Amino acid sequence: MSVMDDDNFELHPQLEQDGRLIVSLGTSDWLLMNDSRFPWVVQVPRFKGATLMTSLPAEMRAGVRRESDFMVEVLQGLFNPDHINVAQIGNVVSQLHIHHVCRFTDDALWPKPIWAQTPAIPYTDVQYQERLAALRWQF
Amino acid sequence: MSVMDDDNFELHPQLEQDGRLIVSLGTSDWLLMNDSRFPWVVQVPRFKGATLMTSLPAEMRAGVRRESDFMVEVLQGLFNPDHINVAQIGNVVSQLHIHHVCRFTDDALWPKPIWAQTPAIPYTDVQYQERLAALRWQF
User: What is the mean pLDDT of chain B?
Assistant: First the structure.
């Protein structure tokens, strides 16, 4: 728990279903999405009712962005992607969440964005645990 | 020209073709995309070779984010959208650019993201000039 924590925050059930917690950092919960096609992590700032970055108090907003920049560096170090997509979409799940998706020029959907395309290909349990462990070792 | 300006920066030809300049702010050029389906503006930080936010020096990065937050408020005031998508994708045009797209629950593509879907529907010249003017009056 951080001093910035909002006690009323609850992770949206759809996000809880689609991913597993990597780590809770100062402002945000970080989830690894269950899609083996690309390392895909989602940042969820713990602030009830937020739908846009501008919903957040300025201090928290700055912390959310510092964490995002740090995660981009972690992903680059671990996976050496060709590019990283960083996006707030939230048309279906309105709770503020920021996608960070490692992309490779030979991945299944390149160069398309990954949303509203073909369905996820889940990890095996072993793959998922291994990838979660690799990410958790960074924190 | 701002003190932070990178003299070697040149706007990517694809962005130049797809949009028209609304305004140049301290860190970024802001373009209105020629798609009448939704107010869609793109922020292009003037920094040669940047592909991710982490490509930018810390001071400029903070300025880019302040401008983005300000533009979100401008778009809310002008267009009263149901939601705004804020996204760095850049799989096709690698030059760092941040989409800000006003979305409406009755727009042509809701709730899908707008990228890699059906083609843009251009404004008429009069519509485009009017929308550009409405945006420029905010600065």
Answer: 95
